[in-house]
Write a structure and sequence with these properties.
Length: 318
């Protein structure tokens, strides 16, 4: 890197940490494209991560997640908080109807410098998408925004994985949709910190809330009791309560010193990065020690656990 290029990157990093929207937008694009610029900035932002409240909204399509997020953003702005919104929808390319719809819904907040909205284009496999989303969240966090909201469609394992980067997970569903309840039961109920029955202006809302509360009894007891809230995103009903509940969960998460342990996040990212580096190495290497392990597995001498253990020992990780 030339001195001039490095000066430019330093400036971009400074502007990002100062919260300048243009630096935020440019950095996110760099992260999506995995440029050298992104690698430099991702390194520089590390000391500035961990201050934002990160909340994920997930749930079946049509439950009203985008409308609810729009209302939640309005509530946060009323409270003087600055916000970033990240929409991750693997099924909708950036030019598709759903994202366009979100843009129009978010139009209420255009021109408000306290709200930054970004959609992640779906490309490549889902693991790649969730990795990109996690790095984009880090960039948003470092930009000094108070709250980061992430929207994902909750349908399968990959979305659960994406939601895993959020500190507080809100699962949104609509009343009277029996199949959705089944889908929620199958996976995303387990990850919920807050359950929302949106469209509570519709019949069946009370019934659905009751059903969800019954299902929650099957979950293992923990310090945090998952609340079931009713909202009407279109009329703002229940929004102050939802915002309070998210704040309470974030506080419970942070504990007495109001900090989220940075090592926990770094461990997770490092584990992911290392797994990929190992995969690349293993698939390409003709190192004699590796070939010996491959032969030992082929001959039945070592099982896969034993072979992994042996390689880890050679890496001095254990
Ligand atoms: N009746 C009613 N409709 C709602 C409510 N919230 C959202 N909707 C409507 O439900 C539809 C889907 O909403 P959207 O936010 O796109 O759902 P998403 O796919 O979960 O993001 C839209 O037509 C919304 O206007 C609500 O509280 N009550
Ligand atoms: Mg949506």
């Amino acid at each position: 890197m030339t001195g001039l290029a490095e000066d430019k990157l330093k400036l971009q990093l400074e502007q990002l940490i100062a919260g300048k929207p243009s630096a935020l937008a440019r950095t996110i694009t760099a992260v999506e494209n995995q440029t050298p610029e992104a690698r430099y900035i991702l390194k520089g932002i590390q000391p500035h991560i961990g201050n934002a409240l990160v909340v994920g909204f997930t749930g079946p399509p049509g439950a009203g997640k985008s409308t609810l997020i729009n209302a939640y953003v309005r509530e946060l702005r009323n409270r003087g908080k600055t916000v970033c919104v990240l929409a991750v929808d693997p099924s909708s390319p950036i030019s598709g109807g759903a994202i366009l719809g979100d843009r129009i819904r978010m139009a209420e907040h255009t021109g408000d410098a306290g709200v930054f909205v970004r959609s992640l284009a779906s490309r490549g496999h889902l693991g790649g998408l969730s990795r990109t989303a996690a790095r984009v969240l880090d960039v948003m966090d470092a930009s000094g925004r108070d709250v980061i909201v992430i929207e994902t469609v909750g349908a399968g394992q990959s979305e659960v994985e994406i939601a895993g980067v959020a500190g507080t997970k809100v699962v949104v569903c609509a009343p009277g949709l029996g199949d959705d309840i089944q889908a929620i039961k199958a996976g995303i109920l387990e990850i919920a910190d807050v359950l929302v029955v949106n469209k509570s202006d519709m019949p069946q809302a009370e019934n659905t809330k009751r059903q969800l509360r019954t299902m929650l009894h099957l979950r293992q007891a923990s310090d945090w009791n998952v609340p079931v809230l009713g909202t009407v995103a279109t009329t703002f009903e229940g929004l102050p309560e939802l915002a309070d509940t998210i704040d309470n969960h974030d506080e419970a998460l942070r504990g007495a010193d109001h900090k989220i342990d940075p090592h926990q996040r770094i461990r997770r990212v490092l584990a992911e990065t290392l797994a990929h580096a190992i995969e690349d190495k293993l698939m390409g290497s003709s190192d004699p020690a590796l070939i010996e392990v491959l032969n030992d597995v082929q001959s039945g001498e070592l099982n896969f656990d034993e072979a992994s253990q042996k390689l880890l020992e050679q890496m001095k990780l254990l």
